[in-house]
C-alpha cells in the first residue's frame, strides 16, 4: 500500500465505456424516478418523505454497525430518549442524521446554485452532523492506540487505512478535494452524466476519506444531495442506503473493487481501475433502480389503500378501532388533509361518535395535525409501517415495529 499525494492518482473520475450499457441503465433510472408516486397528493407525499428520512437514517447507520430500531428513532425525534446510555447515544445519532438531511434539502432549495462538490459544502455536512452527536461518538482510536477527538467540519490530520486502501496523505487533501470539485460539479454536466457522476463521486469521496471519522454517513448524505441535483431523488421518496445496507457485502466489495489500481493497458488510462469504477457505478445504478421500483410498488395508490384498510380491519378485530376509521384514513390519503368538521359526513356517524373515532386515530398517530382544531392528515408512525409498507425494514424489525 502507498499513500497518495498527487491528484492524478484519483483518475479516472468518470468511467470510460465502449458500449451503451451504463447509459441505458442511467436512462432507466431517470425514467423510473420521474414516474415515482405521481399519484400521491403533495401532503401525503410529504408524510412519506418524512418516513423515508427516518428509513435512510436507519439504513445508513446500520451499514456502520449501529442498529437503532425505527420505534426508537421515532421516540428520539420526540426527544424521548432511552435510559440506556448506549441506546440513547444511537438515538441521538439517528436524529442527527435526519436533521442534517433536512438541512441539506432546505439549503439546496434556498440556494439552487450551491456547489455540493466544494470543500465548504462537504465540511458543512460533517460539521452539522458531528455537532449533533453525543460526545462518545466523537472520538476514534488510531492503530497505535491513541484516542483522537473528531473536530466537526475539519479535514483529518492523520493518515488512514481502510481495508487494503491507504487514503491520500492528509496534507494533500485540499488538492484532492479541489480536483473532486472540478471533476464532479453537477453544473458542468449533462443530465445523463450527472447520474453517472452521482455514482462515481460516491466512490471517489470514500476513496479520499477526507475526515477522521464519519466518512460513510457524510458520503451518503452527500450522495443524497447529488441525487437531488441530478433530479432523480424522486422528491425524497426513495433512498439508495436501503439497497446498500441490504446488500452490504456487495456494496463494500464494489467500493473495494473501485479502489484497485489499473489492471493493465486495457483497463483505462488512469491510475485507478476503469473496470472497477464501471462495476461500482453499475452496482450503484442497479441498486438505485431496484429501490425506486420497490418504492413505486409500495406507493401504488390502490395497493396502499388496501393495506391501510387491512390494518384497520385487524384493529377492529382487536377492538382498537371501529370500521369507520378506514373511511377517514382513505380520505386523508387521497385528499392530503381533511377538515375535522367533515368527520361525521365521511364516517356516516353522529357528530360526537365521529369525533371519538377521529380522536382515536390521532391518539394512535395514524392521523396528525398542526393544531388542536386544524385539519388532519395521514401519519406514518413506526407502529404501522410494517402493515402499510411491508418489507420497508428487515423482517424482524418490521414485525416488532408493527
Give the secondary structure arrangement, pairings included:
Elements: H1 21-35, H2 42-63, H3 70-77, H4 85-110, H5 119-130, E1 139-141, E2 147-149, E3 161-162, E4 165-166, H6 173-184, H7 191-208, H8 215-229, H9 240-246, H10 248-259, H11 274-298, H12 301-317, H13 325-335, H14 343-347, H15 351-363, E5 367-369, E6 376-378, H16 382-388, H17 395-401
Antiparallel strand pairs: 1-2, 3-4, 5-6
Helix pairs in contact: 1-11, 2-4, 2-9, 3-4, 4-5, 4-8, 5-8, 6-7, 7-8, 7-11, 9-10, 9-11, 10-11, 12-13
Please identify the structural class as seen in this structure.
mainly alpha
**What is the makeup of the main sheet?**
2 strands, antiparallel
Helix count?
17
Q: From N to C, what is the helix and strand string?
A: HHHHHEEEEHHHHHHHHHHEEHH
Strand % is under 5%
Write down the overall mean pLDDT. 94
Helix content: 55-70%
Amino acid at each position: 500500500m502507498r499513500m497518495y499525494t498527487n491528484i492524478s492518482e484519483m483518475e479516472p473520475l468518470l468511467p470510460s465505456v465502449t458500449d451503451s450499457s451504463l447509459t441505458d441503465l442511467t436512462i432507466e433510472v431517470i425514467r423510473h424516478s420521474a414516474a415515482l408516486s405521481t399519484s400521491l397528493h403533495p401532503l401525503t407525499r410529504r408524510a412519506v418523505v418524512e418516513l423515508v428520512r427516518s428509513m435512510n437514517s436507519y439504513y445508513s447507520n446500520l451499514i456502520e454497525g449501529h442498529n437503532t430500531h425505527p420505534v426508537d428513532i421515532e421516540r428520539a425525534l420526540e426527544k424521548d430518549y432511552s435510559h440506556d446510555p448506549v441506546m440513547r447515544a444511537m438515538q441521538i445519532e439517528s436524529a442527527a442524521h435526519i436533521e442534517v438531511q433536512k438541512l441539506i434539502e432546505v439549503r439546496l432549495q434556498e440556494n439552487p446554485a450551491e456547489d455540493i462538490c466544494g470543500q465548504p459544502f462537504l465540511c458543512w455536512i460533517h460539521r452539522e452532523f458531528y455537532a449533533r452527536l453525543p460526545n462518545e461518538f466523537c472520538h476514534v482510536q488510531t492503530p497505535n492506540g491513541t484516542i483522537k477527538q473528531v473536530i466537526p467540519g475539519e479535514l483529518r490530520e492523520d493518515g488512514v487505512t481502510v481495508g487494503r486502501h491507504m487514503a491520500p496523505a492528509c496534507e494533500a487533501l485540499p488538492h484532492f478535494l479541489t480536483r473532486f470539485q472540478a471533476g464532479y460539479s453537477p453544473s458542468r454536466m449533462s443530465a445523463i452524466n450527472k447520474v453517472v457522476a452521482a455514482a462515481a463521486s460516491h466512490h471517489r469521496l470514500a476513496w479520499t476519506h477526507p475526515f477522521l471519522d464519519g466518512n460513510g454517513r457524510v458520503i451518503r448524505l452527500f450522495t443524497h444531495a447529488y441525487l437531488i441535483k441530478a433530479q432523480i431523488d424522486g422528491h425524497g421518496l426513495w433512498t439508495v442506503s436501503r439497497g446498500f445496507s441490504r446488500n452490504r457485502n456487495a456494496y463494500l466489495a464494489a467500493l473495494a473493487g473501485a479502489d484497485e489500481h489499473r489492471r493493465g493497458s486495457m483497463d483505462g488510462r488512469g491510475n485507478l481501475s476503469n473496470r472497477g469504477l464501471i462495476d461500482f457505478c453499475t452496482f450503484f445504478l442497479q441498486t438505485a433502480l431496484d429501490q425506486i421500483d420497490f418504492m413505486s410498488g409500495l406507493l401504488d395508490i390502490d395497493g396502499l389503500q388496501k393495506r391501510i384498510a387491512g390494518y384497520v380491519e385487524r384493529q377492529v378485530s382487536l377492538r382498537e378501532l371501529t370500521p369507520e376509521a378506514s373511511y377517514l384514513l382513505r380520505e386523508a390519503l387521497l385528499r392530503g388533509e381533511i377538515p375535522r368538521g367533515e368527520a361525521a359526513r365521511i364516517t356516516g356517524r353522529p357528530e360526537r361518535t365521529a369525533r371519538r373515532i377521529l380522536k382515536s386515530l390521532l391518539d394512535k398517530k395514524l392521523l396528525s395535525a398542526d393544531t388542536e382544531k386544524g385539519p388532519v392528515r395521514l401519519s406514518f408512525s413506526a407502529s404501522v409501517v410494517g402493515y402499510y409498507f411491508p418489507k420497508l425494514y428487515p423482517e424482524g424489525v418490521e414485525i416488532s415495529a408493527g
